[in-house]
Amino acid sequence: MQIIYTDVLVIGGGLAGQRAAIGAKRRGHDVIVLSLVPAKRSHSAAAQGGMQASLGNCFGASGDNEDIHFADTVRGSDWGADQEVVRMFTHTAPKAIRELAAWGVPWNRVARGDREITVDGKKHIISEPDAAHGLITSRNFGGTQKWRACYVSDGTGHAMLYTMSNQAIAANIPVHERMEALALIHSDGRCHGAIVRNLATGELLAYVARATCMATGGFGRIYRVSTNAIINEGMGAAIALETGVATLGNMEAIQFHPTGIFPAGILVTEGCRGDGGLLLDGRQHRFMPDYEPEKKELASRDVVSRRMEEHIAAGHGAHSRFGEHLWLDIRLLGADHINNKLREVKEICQYFLGIDPVSELIPVRPAQHYSMGGVRTDHRGESPQLRGLFAAGEAACWDMHGFNRLGGNSVAETVVAGMIVGDAMADFCDSQAGKLILSTALVDEFGQKQQRLLAGIANGNGSESAFELTRLMQETMTANVGIFRHRDRLEQAVSTLQELQQRARNIGLRSAAPGANPELVTAYRLQRMLKLAQCVAYGALQRTESRGAHYRADFPRRDDLNWMRRTLATWPDDEAGLPTLDYEALDIMRMELPPGWRGYGARDYIEHPQTSARQQQIDGILGDIPDADRHARQQALMPFRHLLPEHLRNNNERQGEEP
Amino acid sequence: MNRIPLRPAARTLQIQVLRHNPHDPASEPHLQTFEVEEADTMTLFIALSEIRERQDPSLQFDFVCRAGICGSCGIIINGRPGLACRTLTKDLPDRITLAPLPAFELIGDLSVNTGKWMRGMSERLETWVHSRNLENLDIDTVEQAMEPELAEQLYELERCIECGCCVAACGTAQMRQDFVGAVGLNQITRFQLDPRDERTDAEFYELVGDESGVFGCMTLLGCEDMCPKELPLATQIAFLRRRMVCSG
Amino acid sequence: MTSHPNRGPARADVLQSLTGLLLVLFIWGHMFFESSILLGKEAMHWVSKMFEGEHLFGKPYPLLVSVVAAVIFVLIAVHAILALRKFPGSYRQYQQFNAHMGALRHADTTLWYVQVITGFAMFFLASAHLFVVFLQPDNIGPYASSDRIWSGNFWIIYAPLLVSVHLHAGVGAYRLAMKWLPIPAASSRQVRRKLKLVMWGIVVFFLCLGSASLATYMVIGRDHAPYAGERYVPGKSQAPTGEH
Ligand SMILES: Cc1cc2nc3c(=O)[nH]c(=O)nc-3n(C[C@H](O)[C@H](O)[C@H](O)COP(=O)(O)OP(=O)(O)OC[C@H]3O[C@@H](n4cnc5c(N)ncnc54)[C@H](O)[C@@H]3O)c2cc1C
Ligand code: HEM
Ligand code: HEM
Ligand code: SF4
Ligand code: F3S
Ligand code: FES
User: Fold this and answer.
1) Which residues line ligand 3 (CB under 6 A)?
2) If you average pLDDT over residues B158-180, what whole number do you get?
3) Pairing mode, if any, of strands A190-198 and A204-214?
4) CATH H superfamily, domain B12-112
5) Backbone torsion region of residue A225, taken as left when φ is above 0, otherwise alpha when ψ lies between -120 and 50, otherwise beta
6) CATH code of residue C108
7) What is the predicted ipTM?
8) pTM of the shown model
9) Is 60 exceeded by the pLDDT of residue A624?
10) Closest approach atom of ligand 6 to CA B71
11) Does domain B114-247 have CATH number 1.10.1060.10?
12) Residue partners of A559: CB distance under 8 A and separation at least 6
């Protein structure tokens, strides 16, 4: 088996992976990026709507800053997020966007003067100031107080990923495409790289590295209806789980996006609603204000998705051959706006629905969209259990999203986390701990194990079909571990998944084609996906409360008293049918923003006694420094800057804000 | 008796696939026909996945986003390049012939290595913003202003998804392996237009001022007609040609 | 020197287009003059004398025609040599292009191939014609030309040359427009559709005009066959005319 040595191995060529790679490379380390597909085809390219950063340039963003972005994100997370990490994130996001701007992303800009906008179904004229002309503009998104989602028409992720990839090419970072990491090489709590399969030739290789970064994106494909790319099968999270050492955090926290087109599940961006689009029911009645008078269509995604399913369940859906759905109406935005700012949406409607959204309604229904959970890391992005293993982006549970992520916060996270983790990996490589110490025997051992596994599948003459089992898993997840969860259904899911795990040991391949062999790929991925699915289902079963996107119909209230905790899953015994769950407490006494009402969604929750204690403490601290500026006040409550790499600690300058 | 069929009976599609596995010494390129029952809103992505799941698990093809945005699934559909994931079978005749994109290295069946080609193109044309101040960028201060129209224009050119359809649709690229294709020429115009890129026209000339670049283009316009993102390739190539002639 | 980019390719491209443009303009003009036969022998005679400079200098200088023919020949030669670089360089390339074109069923790609074929044909046909014009510049006129076409069997060259040159020139002119004109991206597709329509209009017009002239020359030539070699003298009514 060929062994390739490098300082830093980045598994994943999406936004997170490539930004981390650039960071480490700039610090003088050799970096190799692995990707299942050419880097520019990673699913980051699919992000349409925007990237959140509190630049505060345009009309609806004026007065925005890190503090408001912080509060929105914490509320969005339903207090599940790590608040220090949220602070690190909201502080760095403007820097990330400015860096990308300099690197070439053609962010849409503020144009001075009057323009028409659509709010609440009505047209308004607003005026943009001269001073902001040409600065980066932003649009409204769900769950935010300000227009904060910076965008490039509705191809934001595409433009970001192309710029990022081009910078990585400029930095001469090799991307080994069509390579799949199959297992992490590790010993004694230290990660040494990965065993990798070449997807074009079927050959196995070992990549040995001092620092390894998991940036493999989400795992939406454990569901049948998902907005995710079909490569989003969670192999990164799965192989971290298979070390038996590294933990996965909050796997039950799965986001459903309100507007997947029906029935294909392809996403149309939240920008549609942010720009003024409305949700209508079967009778073309605008129903969201009935449920959510405050934020209406622009409550957070978990809330809107739930309301939509609730409304359909109450018999108000529109009917079609494929089942029930609701309508998204963007006709009121006008042809001009749609043709310029929502082009991809228009194309998707044209090609996949055969309709023109300028004059027709778009059939939509919530679809799986994002996984808040992933490889649990500390604030620097390193696994607390497995040194030398880092994670960034959707694959990670760095934990700035808690139980629900806000639209636009994800691509922002990928870049910010990439910036931080790139540095952290470079620091690690520079340190004593980052020395490469391993025997080739260990590499061989891991390689041979994978070889045996693959041979076992290829030569097994079982009767089960990998494709069929995959479909069953996806259907189980969509039916039983969806938006509304309930003990009975979850128990059903857990037992079905266990059964599928058994059956998956008995797979027989019909094709023995040398080279890529797509059937073999489906088979070995299935076994890993089943483990992830089980973490989701079992975690959801155990969490007897409703928080963010995790909604238990039998426990409809958020329960801060018992569940101010993050779920941690490990899978120490390969033969076991279930993960081992553990919990990590979130310390309310260290929170800058103690738990409360989110400003939308359900108002009642079970309060933790520390909440009011912490609130009193905060009032006291702030009372002592009445004249301090917002930075000092923040610093007094929950210092975070020391956690950031030094070059990211400065204040962000804003147009029109006193320095 | 009120069950009037709404649609004509489902068709059985004859899908012919040009198959070849270069990793199998015994494999010879050949056409293989699969029969698929057409379903509502069936795309070639759905049809091919069905073939793989039910009929031939060794069939190779590439899909990633299945939504027409990542550029993975360019193939030749009845002679013409297009994105398979957003091609509805209802727009095609009963007999459909599928072949891999020519001009790219074949991985197997319908899968070709566009990624490698595109990376090579990017490296050769240096498709990134060249600016001296990127080394010590100040990211704490307010960003440089840019005209809103210019930003939109840049995005217009950046919508390219590197699917390779323009290369497959270009007769020049079929004859000359080193031709950078409309995709490369378009990207050069994108950076040429970008004020953040400090390269001069003379420097761009070094990159595309020859027969493998803009002067190799014979204005066949297959690129423009078959670009799934409808990029204004003819306009851009003409623009670049004028610029390159006038430069230096 | 190394810091200077190689301007060759740019110059070659411009030169190819420029020679093409001049040739197009020439041939379109040429068609009007040469079709003067449709207006009668007198008109055609007047035009041919004009080119010999008679109206200017009071006396014909057929050498002028030879000079123009030589210039045109040089233009064609330069143009053809530049174009030759674009020809499929090997049988493999030719095959690849052919297969590509066949599968693609794409008008502009096929039209390029038409240009290659017509260009290749003109290589011989136009050379032959120019050779004659160059060597016998004084041998142009209502009867001289008609005799050449009918009795000298030159129609066998002219008919295919007519078709070739107009397809080639029409498509070439359209290609020139697409290649160089600053057409706004937003309207590019509409403008192109219009250009193409205009191109076909021009091609058809000239093919009709040329066919009519060629037919006229042939009729005159047939009737004049017994007197082949005899020159047209204006004003003087000569033995058999067009009407019997
Ligand atoms: C349709 C859609 C629209 C979205 N819109 C928005 C939006 O508007 N705003 C927003 O903030 N967020 C949005 N998101 C979310 C956001 O796009 C993603 O969360 C984010 O881009 C993930 O980036 P990433 O770098 O973590 O992973 P990805 O971009 O998914 O990249 C994963 C990489 O890992 C590689 N990989 C995976 N497994 C392996 C393996 N085993 N071995 C080797 N390589 C591997 C893949 O090849 C790929 O290169 C959207 C998501 C979807 C699905
Ligand atoms: C013997 C003669 C000729 C040959 C071999 C020839 C060949 C060609 C070829 C192959 C092209 C395509 C070049 C390309 O795509 O870059 C071309 C273009 C063209 N030809 Fe000719 N040609 C000949 C004569 C003529 C004549 C007589 C005319 C004018 C009537 C003409 C006008 C043009 C024009 C306008 C173009 C387009 C120019 C361009 O694309 O830059 N050609 N010719
Ligand atoms: C100085 C250059 C030229 C002169 C003086 C000239 C002159 C003539 C004349 C006098 C005729 C009438 C027939 C005859 O006398 O033989 C003729 C016919 C014709 N010429 Fe030319 N010619 C020139 C160049 C060209 C070129 C470059 C082409 C094309 C490449 C061309 C294409 C034709 C054709 C197609 C006909 C037949 C016309 C018809 O069918 O009506 N000529 N030319
Ligand atoms: S220019 Fe168009 S056809 Fe060519 S690669 Fe880009 S998107 Fe595809
Ligand atoms: S098809 Fe090819 S020749 Fe030029 S106009 Fe397009 S690149
Ligand atoms: S699969 Fe992404 S464009 Fe077709």
Assistant:
1) C 27, 30, 34, 65, 68-69, 72, 122, 126, 129-130, 133, 140, 145, 148-149, 154, 158, 161-162, 165, 210, 213-214
2) 95
3) antiparallel
4) Beta-grasp domain (3.10.20.30)
5) beta
6) 1.20.1300.10
7) 0.92
8) 0.94
9) yes
10) 3
11) yes
12) A544, A545, A547, A605, A606
